[in-house]
Amino acid sequence: MKLTRLRADKILNSKAMWTVEVAVELEDGSQAIASVPEGLSKGATEAVYLSADDSVKIINTKLSKGLKNVDVSDLELFDQKLIEIDGTDNKSNLGANTTLAISIASARAFANSQEIELYEHINRFIPVEIGNRFPELMVLVMEGGKHADNQLQIQEFLAVVDTVEKGREIYLKVLEEVAKLGYSTNVGAEGAVCPTQILAEEAVRIIEKFHDKISLDVAASSVFEATKEFKYLSNGHKFFSIEDPFPEDAWDDWTKYLEENPNQMLVADDIVTTNAELIRRGIEKHIANAVIIKPNQIGTITESIRAVNVARNAGWKIICSHRGGETNDDFIADFAVAVVSDYVKFGGFNRGERIAKYNRLLAIKRRISVEK
Ligand code: 2PG
Ligand code: MG
Fold first, then answer.
1. Whole-angstrom Cα distance, residue 241 to residue 65?
2. Which ligand is closest to the CA of 158, given by its number?
3. How far is the centre of ligand 2, averaged over its atoms, from the C-alpha of 318 (Å)?
4. Residues 55 and 163 both lie in one domain
5. Which of 269, 293, 332, 344 to mutate to test the pocket of ligand 1 (most atoms within 8 A of CB)?
6. Quick check: CB of 117 below 6 Å from ligand 1?
7. Average pLDDT over residues 67-83
8. Annotated catalytic sites, by residue?
9. Do 104 and 205 reside in the same domain of the chain?
10. How far, in Å, is the centroid of ligand 2 from the Cα of 6?
11. Band of the pLDDT at 372, cuts 50, 70, 90?
12. CATH code (residue 198)
């Protein structure tokens, strides 16, 4: 099935930044659109994010001609073509936002043309069947760090649950409790509460009142003091998982921590940036046992799948994640189900662009349970 039309426009993301939206049409008239997020606390080794203006220009000139009549049926071959046209290790020619938007829109258009769901199309390229396995949710309940204007140095306080319903309940209880204690109920970048003045110890205690499976994203490369805050908290609390507790260049700190805490789920995000080669290096150095997968850190669906495969083969847990600056595109929900992700991170329940992902997950779950 050939691509016959490719067009890009600039749209706004949830942080009032411009991003790219791509529209694709196939030879049978099937159409699809896709837009991509941008991180707020980015890893240094993420693939290049081109300005939306440059991205739109490249697509509407060079790529709309270069990709015309290219077959989209095989996800891997199509993405390979994008990788070849870019010709760099970090997508610095086309931008990872450009290539990912095209990769998603083309896969979605193909799924439409075949009258199958996007997650079903992607799963054909995954060596694991979906069956009745569905990701658990790391629901964001409190925000700090670069994502909020408050005292918390740690970026994310998350409740780990198996259903959206449970996540919603905990989210609302935490919100109510924060208000009751007299703190502000401001909303952070990713749709959770970010009370001003609150300290990390109290933040955790509030969440612990309602749930005992709590995860953290320390995002240590973004805020210098975050590691210190994490070390203080870990004296009195047990966490289900800990993401980025050390900076992305402190590989030895990661290895040492895992050696000393072999049963702790330790999640690598900024240190490996969805890059299969970096994940391989991380596996060799025993830096973690779980990984965050953010397709826009690498730039195509295929390379994101590669990252998942490498991590999973080493026994690492997979967590598919949204970004700080999001759009209403719900691709990440399809992707998470397709790759049989262990967990997802879609944010809190107070921002439409996060809700879009949760609602898509609910729709997929309904669909899968009807099929069974
Ligand atoms: C993270 C993400 C998503 P950002 O650090 O895991 O929560 O944040 O997209 O800003 O990098
Ligand atoms: Mg992170």
1. 46
2. 1
3. 13
4. no
5. 269
6. no
7. 98
8. 190, 294
9. no
10. 32
11. low
12. 3.20.20.120
* Domain co-membership, 261 together with 342: yes
41 and 148 fall within a common domain: no
For residue range 194-226, what is the model confidence (pLDDT) as tens digits? 999 999 999 999 999 999 999 999 999 999 999
Mean pLDDT to the nearest integer, 47-76: 98
Q: Which residues contact 152 (CB under 8 A, 6 or more apart)?
A: 142, 143, 144, 145, 194, 198, 199, 200, 203, 229
Which protein residue's CA is at the shortest distance from atom 10 of ligand 1? 40
330 and 356 Cβ atoms separated by less than 8 Å: yes
Residue 217 Cβ < 6 Å to ligand 1: yes
Comparing CA positions, the residue from 284, 303, 285, 283 lying closest to residue 293 is: 303
Residues 140 and 86 in one domain: no
Task: Identify whether residues 295 and 190 lie together within a single domain.
Answer: yes
Ligand 1 atom closest to Cα of 140? 7
Spatial contact of 97 and 122, defined as CB atoms under 8 Å apart: no
Say if ligand 1 is within 6 A of residue 214 CB. no
Mean pLDDT in the chain? 97
User: Measured from the CA of 243, which atom of ligand 1 is nearest?
Assistant: 6
Atom of ligand 1 nearest to the CA of 323: 9
Residue 124, in any domain of the structure: no
Contact 218, 158 (CB under 8 A): no
Say how many residues make up the chain: 372
For residue 357 and ligand 1, the question of a CB distance below 6 A is answered with: no
pLDDT digits (tens, 9 = 90+) for 232-289: 999 999 999 999 999 999 999 999 999 999 999 999 999 999 999 999 999 999 999 9
DSSP characters for 4-53? Answer: EEEEEEEEE-TTS-EEEEEEEEETTS-EEEEE--B-SS--TTSPP---HH
**CATH at 9:** 3.30.390.10
Identify the domain containing residue 262 by its residue range: 136-371
Residue 127 domain-assigned?
Answer: no
| pLDDT of 314 higher than 70 | yes
pTM of this structure: 0.98
Average pLDDT over residues 137-146: 98
Instruction: Report the number of distinct structural domains present in the chain.
Output: 2
- Whether 131 is covered by a domain: the verdict is no
Mean pLDDT to the nearest integer, 298-313: 98
Distance of CA 332 to the CA centre of its chain: 7
If asked whether residues 51 and 187 sit together in one domain, one would say no
109 and 227 share one domain = no
Does some domain include residue 130? Answer: no
pLDDT for 369: 86
